[in-house]
Amino acid sequence: MPIPSALAPAAPFSDAERDAVYKAIFTRRDVRDQFLPDPVAEDVLHRILTAAHHAPSVGLSQPWNFIVIRDQAARDQVWHAFNRANEEAAQMFEGDRQTSYRSLKLEGIRKAPVNICVTCDRSRGGKVVLGRTHNQSMDLYSTVCAIQNLWLAARAEGIGMGWVSVFRDADLRDLLKIPDRIEIVGYLCLGHVDELYQTPELEVKGWSKRLPVDEMIFDGTWQGDP
User: Fold this and answer.
1) Given 3.40.50.2300, 3.40.50.1820, 3.40.109.10, 3.30.450.20, which CATH number is that of 29-195?
2) Tell me: the pLDDT tens digits for 165-174?
């Protein structure tokens, strides 16, 4: 008996489907403050996390886990840990740059009804993982792909998301009881929002701006140095 094919036709999306994918990409924003208190429905959250779980991973190792934090007291503890690190971060900038940094509102941890800590289990898949034999960081890159999937799915669901990166690793590890062998990759805040910036907030507020894509594209060899 012939073995059924595991392949399916790779037909392009319809125009409407393609436009929806690009809309999610181009209107995705990092939400820092403007979360509403409305809860995120469990079926919506499950769809978003399922999208994250369908990210590509090296050797199909699926090294990620998602710690979902809903309790307000727990989120307050995380915020205090963030706030200590954020004050240290502010001191690293000088003059107007420090003033601008301090003006950014970073209240998502407390305001967003759902926080998610995304981790990478670097032992998953065993000692030798297909695709990691020469680049041990591929599991971390895979986990970041899961976060990107999660972010785009959240945007498609009308859920705002912010990525908080200002933490002392040991503080977050202690609060969430994360073993030493597990890598913390991202801390995310999710919730409903009324509106999103049309362009990235940091661009609106003059912190930086998006570089032209043509400057990012090299033909054949590295061409980035003067």
Assistant:
1) 3.40.109.10
2) 999 999 999 9
pLDDT tens digits for range 115-157: 999 999 999 989 999 999 999 999 999 999 999 999 999 999 9
Strand partners, 120: 64, 183
Which amino acid is residue 167, in one-letter code? F
